[in-house]
Inverse folding.
């Protein structure tokens, strides 16, 4: 396999750090199959690019996944499941015209201080879409109103790429709830894991990924299991 290393650039999670990425550099008919292998050793996808952090001076980013058959919701997550049981979810495999306006509003109202602001349709398409695999979307509805979309991937597991939702529903904790829905979807499909991307030590926005127990975290080239009785890594 061929890989390349990007130049250093400002880290979008830790403002005092510089970031580099290890990027899978091949492009062939086996791209989706190769990605299903690479995600098991800490890689992620953004658009067409398959990458993993490769920062010489920082090891804060660690891939996290949930073993869905062992996972049990916490008390607060059980309350959330009960509170949101009136919402409806469905999994689809085609992008809809209703997605981008919801994404644009979400980024503008919730993440105007982040690297994805200001949003644009080109940015959205380049981030979500991919020619060599089918992107799936877990939609959430309140009646007929689309209130959240979780962009997710199927490759022998589910990979939670990104979730955006209606800011008017902030009290419904839709970010957490959509992960819970993806766990349920993974069980229904017979998958063993839901990949959550990177937990970043020192980044408060990523702290929620340690709230789904048990979880596995990739470090030193292997997965380590953390349960309710484990000392949770910081």
């Amino acid at each position: 396999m061929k890989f390349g290393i990007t130049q250093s650039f400002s880290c979008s999670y830790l403002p005092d750090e510089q970031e580099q990425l290890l990027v899978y550099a091949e492009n062939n008919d086996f791209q989706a199959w190769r990605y299903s292998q690479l995600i098991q050793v800490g890689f992620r996808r953004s658009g067409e690019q398959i990458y993993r952090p490769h920062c010489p001076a920082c090891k804060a980013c660690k891939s996290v996944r949930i073993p869905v058959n062992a996972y049990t919701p916490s008390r607060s997550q059980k309350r959330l499941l009960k509170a949101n049981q009136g919402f409806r979810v469905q999994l689809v495999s085609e992008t809809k015209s209703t997605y981008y306006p919801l994404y644009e509003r979400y980024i503008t109202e919730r993440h105007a201080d982040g690297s994805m602001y200001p949003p644009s349709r080109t940015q959205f398409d380049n981030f979500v879409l991919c020619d060599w695999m089918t992107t799936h979307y877990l939609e959430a509805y309140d009646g007929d109103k689309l209130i959240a979309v979780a962009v997710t991937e199927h490759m022998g597991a589910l990979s939670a790429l990104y979730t955006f939702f209606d800011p008017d529903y902030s009290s419904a904790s839709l970010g957490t709830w959509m992960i819970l829905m993806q766990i349920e979807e993974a069980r229904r499909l017979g998958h063993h894991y839901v990949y959550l991307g990177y937990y970043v030590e020192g980044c408060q926005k990523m702290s929620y990924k340690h709230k789904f127990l048990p979880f596995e975290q990739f470090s030193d080239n292997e997965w380590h299991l953390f349960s309710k009785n484990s000392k949770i890594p910081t």
Observations:
- The longest strand covers residues 145-154.
- The mean pLDDT is 94.
- The longest helix spans residues 174-189.
- Residues 24 and 51 are 6 Å apart (CA to CA).
